[in-house]
């Protein structure tokens, strides 16, 4: 039996992409799931898919909300605790990207980026920590390779993810005396909707497919990642198998972090 069987997992940004992949994978592991995101319709679609993977009717709940809003964060945690009585794992997955340089990002865009990628996770985690201390649970943050690699076309996004990495390590030290582990996954390019939303760069499907082909060439394994790749890493970090691992940044990037900027464009399959 999986060590994740029956664990209560709260997943933000669960309505698509990596969050959806994590939900489906953990459903197969027998977890009880609290799914939150801005789209009620998409959350319900994911919840239904989780039931097809084995989740019982009362083992998955949907809580639509915007975690950048304090009252929504409070409601999400309270409803999760009311439904399941405990929380074992928090997956801070929600995020966004602005394709802007430091030299041309607006103050409004900057605030939106850091509110969505950093601030809301700090304060949501604060609300969940009392439950995690009781269960000796864990926090898993979804960061990015961009947290450790400078990329001038998306400098503010890199900055927000670098903040997430430091949040992971500082919180790991804070929580270690309580038996609560904190780690992050740092994906490379993953097939998801983050680059295809209104604030992204690749709404056009043909352009997005060209982007994926180009990105496959700078990942040493010769492909981009899928949500399932990230989901497997999250399941490992949430499981008892990783019980002596905390404060770690786990690259899920096909080796991309090993490649220097100067030769990245010369790598091909």
Automatic annotation (TrEMBL):
Protein's UniProt name = Ketoreductase domain-containing protein
Q: Which GO terms describe its molecular function?
A: oxidoreductase activity
* Name of a matching Pfam family: adh_short_C2
Task: Name the Gene3D superfamilies on file.
Answer: NAD(P)-binding Rossmann-like Domain (3.40.50.720)
| SMART domains xrefs | PKS_KR (SM00822)
InterPro entries with a match to the protein in the record: KR_dom (IPR057326), NAD(P)-bd_dom_sf (IPR036291), Sc_DH/Rdtase_CS (IPR020904), SDR_fam (IPR002347)
Task: Tell me the keywords, alphabetical order.
Answer: Oxidoreductase
Q: What's the source species for this entry?
A: Dreissena polymorpha
Domain (Ketoreductase) ranges: 7-188
Q: For this entry, list what GO says about its biological process.
A: lipid metabolic process
């Amino acid at each position: 039996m999986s060590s994740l069987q029956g664990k209560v997992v709260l997943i933000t940004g669960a309505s698509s992409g990596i969050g959806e992949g994590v939900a489906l994978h953990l459903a197969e592991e027998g977890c009880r799931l609290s799914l939150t995101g801005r789209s009620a319709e998409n959350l319900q679609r994911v919840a239904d898919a989780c039931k097809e993977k084995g989740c019982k009717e009362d083992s998955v709940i949907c809580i639509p909300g915007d975690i950048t809003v304090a009252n929504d964060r409070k409601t999400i945690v309270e409803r999760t605790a009311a439904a399941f009585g405990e929380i074992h794992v928090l997956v801070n997955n929600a995020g966004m990207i602005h394709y802007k340089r430091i030299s041309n990002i607006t103050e409004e865009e900057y605030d939106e980026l850091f509110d969505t990628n950093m601030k809301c996770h700090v304060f949501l985690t604060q609300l969940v920590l009392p439950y995690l201390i009781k269960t000796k649970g864990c926090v898993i943050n979804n960061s990015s390779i961009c947290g450790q690699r400078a990329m001038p076309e998306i400098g503010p996004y890199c900055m927000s993810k670098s903040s997430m990495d430091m949040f992971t390590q500082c919180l790991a030290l804070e929580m270690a005396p309580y038996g609560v582990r904190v780690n992050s996954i740092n994906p490379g390019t993953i097939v998801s909707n983050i680059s295809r939303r209104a604030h992204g760069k690749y709404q056009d499907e043909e352009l997005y497919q060209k982007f994926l082909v180009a990105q496959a060439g700078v990942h040493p394994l010769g492909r981009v990642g899928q949500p399932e790749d990230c989901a497997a890493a999250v399941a490992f970090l949430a499981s008892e198998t990783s019980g002596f691992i905390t404060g770690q940044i786990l690259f899920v990037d096909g080796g991309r972090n090993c490649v220097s900027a100067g030769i990245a464009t010369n790598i091909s399959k």
